[in-house]
Amino acid sequence: MKFVVSGYAIKDDIVNCRSGPGTSNNIVRTYKKGTQVTLSCQTPGTTIGGNNLWDKTQHGSSSPSGGGSSSGYCKGVSAASLNMIKVFEGYEPNVPPVGYGHLCQTTGCKEVKYKFPLTKETAEALLKDDIPNYTCLGNYLNGNVKLNENQWGALVSWVFNMGCGAAQSSPLVKRLNAGENPNTVIASELPKWNMAGGRFLLGLDLRRKEEVKFAQTPSNKQAFPNCE
């Protein structure tokens, strides 16, 4: 699946772009720090730093997503955040989505390295393996945004549920990047994500309320832009 995206200014010293979304593809273009890059889409590719999304630029070349963003944010979540996601997703040892919400990428979920049926222990291990793919929000926020571990955990739970593409194009990201208070933005924006297929779903509504409540739990431990 590809997601329509916008763009950013390169913040790393150099970002190499390749002919396709993988490290085995040839480098075809190099962007220097400060270059404004326009993106046409994102597509899955080689996983780097727990993130498998690659950006396709206006020149048709690809680079690992996040070349314009802070890289010091948490690629995981706290134990309390993980437990919250486990409760929301529910445990399934065999039937997709398996474990705690793992979306199978191959027939029979062959990419999963754990033996089926999954135990609760291996299901949790799989969830921990999956979580970095849903910390993609860190690629879309500027370095002026400050999120503690509970705000971060709530937002990762939301992205786990709704997807990176939906998160990136959301008003929530725009408001956070504009400097609004994270708790205010989260309390205002997350409850809007309670529908699927144009229908209100009570389960989603309850999940959003719990995520807001969790985000508003005070913590002095920062998760973005730097992981403490």
How would you describe this structure to a colleague?
Keywords: Antimicrobial, Bacteriolytic enzyme, Host cytoplasm. One of its GO terms (biological process) is peptidoglycan catabolic process. One of its GO terms (molecular function) is lysozyme activity. This is Lysozyme-like protein. It comes from Linderina pennispora. This protein is of the alpha+beta class. The chain has two domains: about 1-70; about 70-228, Lysozyme (Orthogonal Bundle), CATH 1.10.530.40. Helix content is about 30%, strand content about 20%. The strands form four sheets. The protein has a four-stranded antiparallel β-sheet with strand order 1-4-5-6, with no helix packed on it. Helix 1 (about 80-90) packs parallel to helix 4, helix 4 (about 150-160) packs antiparallel against helix 8 and helix 6 (about 170-175) packs antiparallel against helix 7. The radius of gyration is 18 Å and the shape is globular. Residues about 1-5 have low confidence and may be disordered.
Concise structural overview:
The protein has 228 residues and is an alpha+beta fold.
